[in-house]
Specification:
549 residues, Rossmann fold, three-stranded antiparallel β-sheet, elongated
Length: 549
């Protein structure tokens, strides 16, 4: 076979040599142990939790080792591209604090190993495909879609493995004259890899997460370049990861099925193979079974879900860290206020089997994250969210920012901050009783307090309430008043002999809470009354009394 002539027919255009590209993209001068990682999403307009999961692993792996984190766009499939998808990807990276060192950014491309859009790298892939043709490791295939469909049907009838291999690789040994004639006739062709693998043999790698993995050798003559000269993912990833000097490829375990393709390609091209780290699927409990989290079935699979619901990006990252590394939760307990970036992340602590997504646990993590924020930070975040998703809440909060911040400051700070909020969409209900236009009271009083006692408390308390005292004096006044109406004057006294009293100081407080806040569960009642002011407190007491009567 005249491979020189074959290569010239297949690649008549002028191309750089692989050696020239090796010189253009030299081995990086980085400290020993520094890792080069990359995230390479397709611009489909959908960013899912798995994308973020992998990106966090990539970013932590690179930056904790003093390496580089690259964002590359895999735009080889035009049919799947969505306008604005790249902007979505860079926005998500910004929102989640995933600082890239090279690649595509909201302001363009940065770095010396680009371009970072795969379609713009077409001549690079063609140069390396030509190299394989010259070495007898690749060839043109003129099969039509109908030819391939007929092949698949025949394989199905014969109960044989599907694919282009063995006797089905009909163009594998086509002579150069026939190739030349077909090209002159304008017949489109793809470039296929000439596999020499034996599926009865295995090849083993040491995966950075799963340990030793053995897979059958590949015998498929898979496509390297499509008929338009654009590569498949499989070929592009191998060439790009080599030239960008990627040292660790982090990707989902769904790629294990074609791992043998990639191993074979790295070897055929003479490239040093990067280390692989295959992450486990994220699972969800569905009834009495577990299944893979689905972007079609599960809204929580989409990162847009967290944005529209109002979960802070920090909460999503923090929760994912509990999934990514088994020791993160213990570290967080020991370091409650430490930045996430100081956690000693390790691939060795990642699960080798499916990781479980737990929304209840996620909410608890988010409550802890928000509890660590200042009132000013919470206010700014909620206002930003509400401006896009809840105009009524936005109007309330921005009408008097200081008033809103005083509400959000209740129970915030200290060793045991309140943990009322898990997401920004809960803020409206949380503080609704502070705004008349949002106030929708539920006057359900404690069951153990008689109706006449409720009426008496509501009628009396307006004259007793003194907004000038501190919290201790305020509660002492409630205790003292409770003793005058047949209630115990202290909680201790009530617990010792509950049958002797009509109620406790806590019951008195609950009646007041329901009247003033319109609910049995609210932030600290003293603080709520202070913020609402004496006139509003007394008006609420009267409204509740009117409703009771």
């Amino acid at each position: 076979m005249d491979y020189q002539r074959l290569a010239a027919l297949m690649f008549p255009q002028e191309l750089k040599t692989p050696e020239e590209y090796e010189a253009l993209f030299p081995v990086r001068n980085l400290p020993e142990g520094a890792k080069i990682t990359r995230m390479a999403p397709s611009p489909t307009g959908f960013m899912h939790l798995g994308n973020l999961f992998g990106a966090i692993v990539d970013e932590r792996l690179a930056h904790l080792s003093g390496g580089k984190f690259i964002l590359r766009i895999e735009d080889t499939d035009l049919k799947r591209q969505v306008p604005g998808a790249v902007e979505l990807i860079t926005r998500v990276f910004g929102q989640y604090g995933l600082n890239i060192d090279e690649g595509v950014t909201s302001d363009g491309e940065i770095g010396e190993y680009g371009p970072y859009y795969q379609r713009q790298r077409a001549p690079i892939y063609q140069a390396f495909a030509k190299k394989l043709v010259l070495e007898g490791k690749a060839y043109p295939c003129f099969c039509t879609e109908q030819d391939l469909e007929n092949m698949r049907n025949l394989q199905e009838q014969r109960h044989e493995n599907p694919g282009y291999y063995g006797e089905y690789a009909v163009h594998r040994d086509m002579d150069v004259d026939t190739v030349e004639q077909l090209i002159k006739e304008g017949k489109p062709f793809v470039v296929r890899f000439r596999s020499t693998g034996d599926p009865d043999k295995t090849v083993t790698i040491d995966d950075q997460i799963k340990g030793k993995i053995s897979v059958p050798e590949n015998n498929q003559d898979f496509v390297l370049l499509k008929s338009d000269g654009i590569p498949t993912y499989h070929f592009a990833h191998v060439v790009d990861d080599h030239l960008m000097r990627t040292s660790v490829v982090v990707r989902g375990e769904e790629w294990l099925s074609t791992l043998n393709w990639h191993i074979q390609l790295f070897g055929a091209l003479g490239f040093k193979m990067p280390k692989f780290a295959h992450t486990s699927h994220m699972m969800k409990v569905d009834g009495d079974k577990k299944r893979k989290l689905s972007k079609r079935k599960d809204p929580e699979a989409s990162l847009d879900f967290y944005r529209t619901e109002g979960y802070p990006p920090e909460s999503v990252k923090e929760y994912l860290m509990t999934v990514i590394n088994s020791n993160f939760e213990d570290w967080r307990i020991a370091n409650p206020t430490a930045p996430l970036e100081t956690f000693p992340f390790s691939l060795k602590k990642m699960s080798v089997s499916g990781t479980l997504f737990d929304m209840d646990k996620f909410r608890d993590v988010s409550k802890n994250v928000i509890a660590r924020m200042s009132a000013e930070e919470v206010y700014d975040r909620v206002v930003d969210w509400a401006q896009e998703f809840d105009q009524d809440l936005y109007n309330c909060l921005t009408r008097d920012p200081d008033y809103a911040k005083s509400i959000l400051a209740i129970g915030r700070g200290g060793k045991k901050p309140r943990k009322d909020l898990a997401l920004w969409s809960e803020v409206k209900d949380y503080l609704s009783f502070f705004y008349d236009e949002l106030f929708n009271p539920d006057y359900t009083m404690p069951e153990n307090v008689a109706k006449e006692d409720v009426a008496r408390i509501l009628a009396d308390y307006g004259d007793i309430y003194n907004p000038e005292v501190d919290m201790t004096e305020w509660f002492n006044a409630i205790c003292q008043y409770s003793g005058t109406i047949g209630f115990a004057s202290s909680t201790k006294e009530y617990k010792q002999n509950p049958e002797q009293f009509r109620g406790s100081p806590g019951d008195t407080s609950m009646v007041l809470r329901v009247a003033v806040c319109g609910r049995q569960n609210s932030p600290d009642l003293f603080s709520c009354m202070q913020i609402l002011g004496a006139d509003k407190v007394k008006a609420r007491l009267q409204e509740a009394l009117n409703k009771l009567n």
